[in-house]
Structures are given as C-alpha cells and as structure tokens.
Write a structure and sequence with these properties.
The chain has 2 domains: 90 residues, Orthogonal Bundle (Helicase, Ruva Protein, domain 3), CATH 1.10.8; 51 residues, no CATH class. Helix content is 65%, strand content 0%. The longest helix is centred in the C-terminal third of the chain and has 30 residues.
Length: 156
C-alpha cells in the first residue's frame, strides 16, 4: 500500500466507526416518564399475543403490564429494575431486546467480524493485483515475433 492511500483508508475506517457509534446512541434516553413508559412497553412482548409488543397490544395482560410499567416509572424505578421485575413475573421470553452475551452475542458479533475479514481480503487481493509486475516484451520476444512475421511474409 503506498503512503498516499493509508490516510484515505484510515479516514474511511474512522468514518465507518463514527457512523456506527452515532447510530447506536442517536436515540438517546427518553426524557419524560411517558417516553420511558412507551419505550419500555415496546421492549416487551405481550405474553398472549403472537408477535406484538406490550405497546401494540390491547390484550388485558398487555394493559396490566403497561400499568405496572407506569407504576414503576412513577415510583422512580430504573429501566433495569423494571426489566428484572417483568422477567421474574413472566419469563425471559417477554424481553424483546436481544442479549449481547453468550451464544446470542455471537449472532451480533459474527457478521461484523465476517465483514471486516471480507474487506481485509478484498484489500489484500486488490493490493496484490496492483503490485503485479507489468509485462513487457523482452528482446528475445521481439526476435520471435519478427521471425514469425517474416515467415508469414509480413514486414514491419
């Protein structure tokens, strides 16, 4: 890799990392109790509905979970405490947020690792292609071509 392209690659990597970091923190924490209740309600699955969050469902159990979240938020409980309360009351399948540890963590990290290796492989291949020697005709090659042309009756 020549000296001029290294800063360009560093800039691209820096921009990609910055974009990922900003995307992960762009939403920020909810500001009001109502925002927190809505956010937490979206993080939990309705135990009786198929594929709906507590926020989307009108089932009686979902309404009760929303009321419990509201009581906990108004009492000043942290999001983590509310999550633990709901998981202990129902089970872990109620939590819609993916865990980042154990085998589930691999689901999140493996695509990133594969992408990094793919880009590294592509960069290596492109670098190798760029560094291949350019082919030039040697004097012996020119003699052979001249003989063939002469044998055919063509002249240069």
């Amino acid at each position: 890799m020549n000296v001029a392209s290294k800063p360009a690659w560093l800039l691209v990597v820096g921009l990609a990392v910055s974009a990922l970091v900003l995307a992960s923190i762009a939403e920020g924490p909810p500001k009001t109790n109502e925002d927190r209740v809505r956010s937490l309600s979206e993080d939990f699955a309705c135990p009786t509905c198929d594929g709906q969050s507590v926020a989307e469902s009108n089932a009686v159990v979902a309404q009760e979970i929303r009321r419990e979240i509201r009581r906990q938020v108004d009492a000043g409980a942290s999001d983590e405490a509310i999550t633990e309360l709901l998981i202990s009351s129902y089970d872990e399948s109620i939590d819609l947020r993916p865990r980042s540890s154990g085998v589930v963590g691999l689901v999140w990290i493996l695509p990133i690792v594969a992408t990094v290796f793919a880009f590294a492989g592509l960069a290596s291949v492109f670098q190798r292609w760029r560094n291949e020697a350019t082919l030039e005709a040697t004097e012996a090659d020119e003699v052979i071509v001249a003989e063939l042309l002469r044998d055919r009756g063509d002249t240069q």
